[in-house]
Design a protein that fits this description.
There is one protein chain. By secondary structure, this protein is an all-alpha fold. It has one domain. α16 packs antiparallel against α17. The chain is globular and about 60 Å long. It is a multi-pass membrane protein.
C-alpha cells in the first residue's frame, strides 16, 4: 500500500521537519509563482488601461525607492543571521535602535533625491510620488529583528507567506486603481499600502522584546559586516535600475514606459526565480561548514539551473506568441518584443552572478562581493551607454553582453576563494 499523507498531516510534517535547501527552494519558488501570476494579472489590466508614459513615471518613482530601500535590505539583517549565538541578543538590541534612526534618515534622503530627480527630469509630479512612497520605511523597524530571527532559523515558509500576501495585495490594488483611473499612481500606491502586511506577518511569526542598550557605541560585529553589505546592495540596485534612469533621461518617459513594460513582462519571471533561489541559498550556505561552502554553492547552482534554464529559454521562444495575445498588439507595434527577448536572455548569466554573490556573503567576505558588484556595474554601464545611440534595443543588447562578460571573472574568483583547499580565507 503506498505511503501517502493526508493534506493536514503533510502540512504538519512540513512545519516540523528541519528546513533544507530543497524545501526552502520550493517555498520560495511557490512564492515567486504566486507573485508572478498575480503580477501577470495586474499587468494584463494595466497594459490595456495605462499609457506608456504612466509606466515610465512609475519606473522612475519605483527606481528611486528601490535604490534607497537597498540600504535597509543589508544594513543589519545579514549580520544578525551570521552572528554568534552568545552575541545575538546584544546585537539585536543595538540593531533595533539603529534601524529606527536609519529608516527615518532614509525617508528624508528619499524625499531629497525625489526633489532632485523631479528637477532633472523636468516633471513636477515625480517629487510628491517619491515622497509619498518614502512612508513605507516606517513599517520596517517594528519587524526587522523578527525577520532576522526567521531567516536565522531558516524558516522561509514565513518569508513566503509575507511575500505572497504582499504580491496578491499589490496585484489587486493595481487592478482596482487602474480601473478607477488613477494613472501611474495605480503602479505606485500599492507598494505603500501593502507594506504593513510585511510587518504583521513577521511579528506574528516570532516574539522578541527589545532591551535598550545602555550606550550608543555601535558593535563592530554590525559595522564590519554591514558596511560592505550595504555597498553591495546599493551597487546591485543601481545596476538593476540604471537602465531606467538612463533611458528616461536621454530618451523620454514614453520610451522608458515601453522598456519598463518589456523588462517586467520578460525578465519578471526570471528575476522572481532568481530571488527565490538567492533567498534560499544564503541561509543554507551560512549553515554549511566552511570547508563545504564551495561544494554546496555549486550543487545549489546546478540544481537551480536545471529548472531555470529551460524556463528562460521557453519564455524567449514563446514571446512572439504570448505577448500580443496577453498584452495586446500595441506593445508589439511599439517595439517591446525584441527588448523582452534580449532582457530575458540576460537572466542566464545572472544565475552565475547571484550564486557567486551569495557564496561570498555566506563565507563572510562581502568586501570581495562588493568588488565584483562594482565590476559588473561598470560593465553594465559601458554596455548600456554604448548601445544608447541605437535606442532601447541597443540598451538591452548592452545589458546582455555586460552580464555575460561579468559572469566569467565572478565565477573564477568565487570558485578559487571558496575552494576547500584554502580554509584560511573562509573565516569571517
Amino acid at each position: 500500500m503506498p505511503n501517502t499523507l493526508k493534506p493536514k498531516a503533510l502540512l504538519n510534517r512540513l512545519r516540523t521537519e528541519k528546513p533544507s535547501f530543497g524545501r526552502n527552494m520550493l517555498w520560495m519558488a511557490l512564492t515567486q509563482g504566486v507573485h508572478r501570476i498575480a503580477r501577470l494579472g495586474a499587468t494584463l489590466i494595466a497594459a490595456r488601461l495605462l499609457m506608456p508614459e504612466a509606466f515610465g513615471i512609475a519606473a522612475i518613482v519605483l527606481t528611486v525607492h528601490e535604490l534607497v530601500n537597498a540600504i535597509t535590505h543589508s544594513a543589519f539583517v545579514p549580520a544578525l543571521v551570521q552572528a554568534r549565538d552568545d552575541a545575538f541578543d546584544m546585537l539585536c538590541n543595538h540593531a533595533h535602535r539603529l534601524n529606527w534612526l536609519l529608516c527615518i534618515l532614509l525617508m528624508g534622503l528619499q524625499c531629497a533625491i525625489g526633489y532632485g530627480v523631479s528637477l532633472a527630469y523636468n516633471d513636477p509630479i515625480l517629487f510628491p510620488a517619491i515622497a509619498v512612497l518614502s512612508l513605507s520605511f516606517l513599517c520596517l523597524p517594528p519587524a526587522t529583528i523578527h525577520a532576522a530571527k526567521v531567516l536565522r532559523e531558516n524558516r522561509l515558509n514565513v518569508v513566503a507567506r509575507a511575500e505572497m500576501g504582499q504580491s496578491l495585495g499589490e496585484a489587486v490594488l493595481i487592478i482596482v486603481f487602474a480601473v478607477a483611473g488613477f494613472g501611474f499612481w495605480a503602479l505606485v500606491l500599492p507598494k505603500l499600502l501593502t507594506a504593513p502586511y510585511w510587518t504583521y506577518v513577521y511579528r506574528r511569526a516570532t516574539s522578541w522584546t527589545p532591551t535598550p542598550p545602555n550606550h550608543w557605541r555601535i558593535p563592530p560585529a554590525l559595522t564590519r559586516f554591514s558596511g560592505p553589505m550595504i555597498g553591495n546592495e546599493v551597487v546591485f540596485a543601481l545596476r538593476n535600475h540604471m537602465d531606467y534612469l538612463l533611458i528616461g533621461f536621454f530618451l523620454s518617459l514614453d520610451v522608458l514606459g515601453v522598456y519598463y513594460f518589456a523588462f517586467n513582462a520578460g525578465l519578471g519571471l526570471s528575476l522572481g526565480l532568481l530571488r527565490a533561489y538567492s533567498t534560499a541559498l544564503f541561509p543554507h550556505l551560512c549553515a554549511t561548514s566552511e570547508a563545504q561552502k564551495g561544494d554546496s554553492m555549486l550543487r545549489g547552482m546546478r540544481l537551480f539551473a536545471r529548472f531555470a534554464v529551460p524556463v528562460i529559454l521557453a519564455q524567449c521562444l514563446l514571446a512572439p506568441w504570448y505577448v500580443p495575445i496577453l498584452f495586446g498588439e500595441r506593445w508589439v507595434e511599439l517595439g517591446a518584443l525584441p527588448i523582452l527577448i534580449l532582457i530575458c536572455l540576460s537572466a542566464l548569466p545572472r544565475i552565475v552572478l547571484d550564486t557567486c554573490s551569495q557564496g561570498l556573503r555566506a563565507a563572510g567576505v562581502p568586501g570581495i562581493d562588493l568588488k565584483l558588484q562594482l565590476l559588473t556595474t561598470v560593465l553594465f554601464g559601458v554596455g548600456m551607454m554604448a548601445g544608447l545611440p541605437w535606442g532601447i534595443q541597443g540598451v538591452a543588447t548592452g545589458i546582455l553582453i555586460g552580464t555575460t562578460l561579468a559572469a566569467l571573472p565572478a565565477y573564477a574568483l568565487t570558485h578559487r576563494r571558496l575552494a576547500p583547499t584554502t580554509p584560511e580565507v573562509l573565516s569571517p
